[in-house]
Amino acid sequence: MSAEAHVTSGDEFALKSHLSTCLFALQASLAEAQHAWLVEAMAAVRTDTADTEALAQRLMCFMARAKRCLGEQRVSVTLPVYASESGFTAGEWTLSHWSKADLGRWVLLATALLASPHDKYLTLAAVFRFADNSEKRAVLIGLYWLLEDPRLVAFTAEVQRTNDLNVFCALATANPFPTRHLPETQFNQLVLKALFLGVSIDHIVDIQARNNAELQRMAEDYLHERRLADREIPPSLWLLLKASNVSQPTQAAWLLALNSDSDDQRYYSARALVSGWEAGEPLPIALEKALRQRPDTETHPTIRALVQDMH
């Protein structure tokens, strides 16, 4: 087995590589004064401190200044996603939703973790405790590439309880950490909270790879809670359901969504059915008929293209 097969997202060798990649991407976007500030900040956070609390406080002094000193222009960086024992294959992940301030904060934290003799998890947790919500967001966006530690399961469970939508989305969306590392119960709770908050679960990385019977049951129960309360079903919820396994009331709701005035309802309900059909899943007669008829009446070009092969 090659040495690369043993690399994980959070070991020291990988973190050094991630830091080099992120630093290169960030420096390429910086003006001279911004670059000078970053060099000064990186040198300061490498300096040894007595304990994790002192290091975290020093980091926060610089992380708090990152927005003013680096700015909020978007910067794109591509990082590796590693193969795992869970069957996920290796690949690449491009982060295009980081600002220069976000990336700068991540670079400072990664620099400190590599230089410090202190417990890396305790340092990260202390930083997060002192951070404001924008700083927490920067930590969470890049969490997968910072550290691999079993204590992060409890850490992220606490993050999931946040009432701040931006902090929650930093963990839940466009982030490989939940899919790769969260146990099933916690992952299911994250998906349900996303639906509750109105966040499209389409943005949860590789969600279908983690879809499971209990999550489908929870989603169907939530669908009927919303209907009983005469509230809209979150459109992306349909992606969790398998038409061949749902109840008659759910099939009726699915039929309504297919013919809804809402583009989102028609798109996600049709997309879920098309995905099932392409996977060889038998569709209920009424839903298959409605899906095959959809191209005749659909006006939205994206949805019409989606269902065209069903005609």
State the main characteristics.
mainly alpha; 311 residues; elongated; disordered N terminus
What does this protein look like?
- The relative contact order is 0.08.
- Helix content is 60%, strand content 5%.
- It has 17 helices and two strands.
- The protein has helices spanning 12-27, 32-46, 52-63, 66-70, 100-115, 120-130, 133-141, 151-159, 165-172, 176-181, 184-197, 207-210, 213-228, 248-258, 263-278, 285-297, 301-307; strands spanning 74-81, 91-99.
- The N and C termini lie far apart (49 Å).
- The protein is mainly alpha-helical and 311 residues long.
- It has two domains: 1-183, no CATH class; 211-311.
- Strands 1-2 form a two-stranded antiparallel ribbon.
- Mean pLDDT is 92; it is low at 1-7.
Layout: helices, strands, pairs:
Blueprint: H1 12-27, H2 32-46, H3 52-63, H4 66-70, E1 74-81, E2 91-99, H5 100-115, H6 120-130, H7 133-141, H8 151-159, H9 165-172, H10 176-181, H11 184-197, H12 207-210, H13 213-228, H14 248-258, H15 263-278, H16 285-297, H17 301-307
The value of Rg in angstroms is 22 Å
Low-confidence stretches: 1-7
- Domain count: the total is 2
Series of H and E elements = HHHHEEHHHHHHHHHHHHH
Strand arrangement in the largest pleated sheet: 1-2
Residues in β-strands, percent:
5-15%
Biggest β-sheet description: 2 strands, antiparallel
In total, the number of strands is: 2
Question: What gap, in angstroms, lies between the N and C termini?
Answer: 49 Å
* Helical run tally: 17
Identify the overall geometry. Answer: elongated
Provide a brief overview of the structure.
The protein has 311 residues and is mostly helical. It is 60% helix and 5% strand.
